[in-house]
Design a protein that fits this description.
This protein is mainly alpha-helical. The protein is built from 23 helices and nine strands. A three-stranded antiparallel sheet has the order 1-3-2. It has a three-stranded antiparallel sheet with strand order 5-4-6. Strands 8-7-9 form a three-stranded antiparallel sheet. A hairpin with a 7-residue loop joins strand 4 (413-415) and strand 5. The longest helix is centred in the middle third of the chain and has 55 residues, at 200-254.
Length: 550
Amino acid sequence: MASVKKKKITSDTMTDLQIDTQQLNVSSKAKLRGRKGGLALLPTMSLDILFEIFGALHPKDLLNLSRTSKTFRELLMQKSKAFLWRAARSQVPGDFPDCPPDLSEPQYARLAFDTYCYGCDKRVHKAIWQFRVRFCPKCQKDSQCMSRDRDLPSLGIQVPNNAILPAYRVGSSERYEEAFLRSQFDALSAQLEEVPSSDMDAFLENRRNATREVQEHAAMCEQWVTSISNARHEERAGHREKRMEAIRSWMVKEGWQPEVDYFGWHNISDHRSIKDPKPLTDKIWGNVRPLLIEHMSAMRNLRIELTVRSPRRNVLFDIWTAFLADPSLPSNISTDVLPHAIDVARFKPFDEIIKSPEGTVVNRDSFSAAFDELPELITAWRQSVDDKIVSALESAPEVPPVIDPLRLATSGFFCARRRCGAMLFHSDLVAHKCSVQYPDTPKKPSIQERIEWSVYDDFGARPWSLEFIAPRSYISQVEGLVRLCGLDPQTATIDDMDKLDAMFCCRINNGPFLIAMNWRTAMSSLKHGRQTAQFQLLEGEDYASAKDSK
């Protein structure tokens, strides 16, 4: 970054600056608003002191000061005070170009350092140096502010517009168009009508020279903006590097080196509290330290899951797979459906083995004692699953008051998972594959989600869940089917309907063709929009014919 030149303002340079100092005095009886001190005393100071202060300010500060009161505005906007703005401009870092002849010093300061659109006062951070304005994206599209070359009327001369008017490129670097300030174009058009033909060549030559000077000055300004941006980027990068090194040293001292080695510093340092470019002051460190401890604790948990517990889960998965393949299961395990390996891993004896301290050796023999408790654990798991199903039924609307809702023919479930949609009863539901399916990994998972999904990935499943199961979605239609069979939906069980072995027929899309189906298939078809009124109970020869065709 280029050195900053400071212009000293002496009393000799002010001999011609006569001003009524009474304009700057504030009555002692006047009440000063705001915080005591600060800029409140500026109007009471002598001109020598004021000018010395003004010359040490940044142009942006002078702009703000000129807007604080009418007195300061009248003082700073005088042409004779241009030296104050030039002195302030010398405080600007980098090779900031001199003020162009077509702008006053305050206008140049506003263009370079103010951040408001000239059209609508919205905030905008980029100046259009060629036009000496700032326009927000909306005003750039306004034809009253800027117009593309193809949208402008002809000036009636054989000279391209960009030769006699400053042009600004809009669009991408590969495909761009040239735009012009509409007020400049209209002014030039009016001037051309008044220029005699004998003076036209000289006029156009002057326009070429003026346009060239504006474009060259705009290029210098853009180069200065780029240099300032690069300097700031390097400064921020330096602060960030120092901050990251300090935090890394702290992590090593606090015992987080295993996490740094496993995940790599690049991944660890991606945390916003680490990569923030602000210098790490004592106050900031006091706020950041608890966040980093929380972050590194989560990273440690993830590392342990991936390097310690995952291999142990793989051992259990292999043991459980072999256990299920053994045709001679223990006689004391009395259940029609066994849990998935991931549910077994959540049983307390197995969970304690998997989560034993990092240095503990875990192999196949480590799970022997836990397997001895398996009959009781499976019974408890199955009871928990049944309780969840009953709870889901009780929370659904129109639940009939029965003692055992799981045996009711109306206690059907539909799988809401896409590409499935199966109709399920109690026993089918417990073993249904979608009850252990887990959703896709989030695009940007949190550390906790990464821990959860690492467990799911180890077993290829997640713990048994009703998340994708919709209980009694079509209970009123199901009750209608049961009534067609002459049974009471309040008491008819699944076994009752199976023994009855009823057959129904239904029209396909209300057309002339009929399709025969048993009661389970009829219930499943309700999910596809069929209503109970569309079904007819088959009897006699129709029933026999339908059974024979099946």
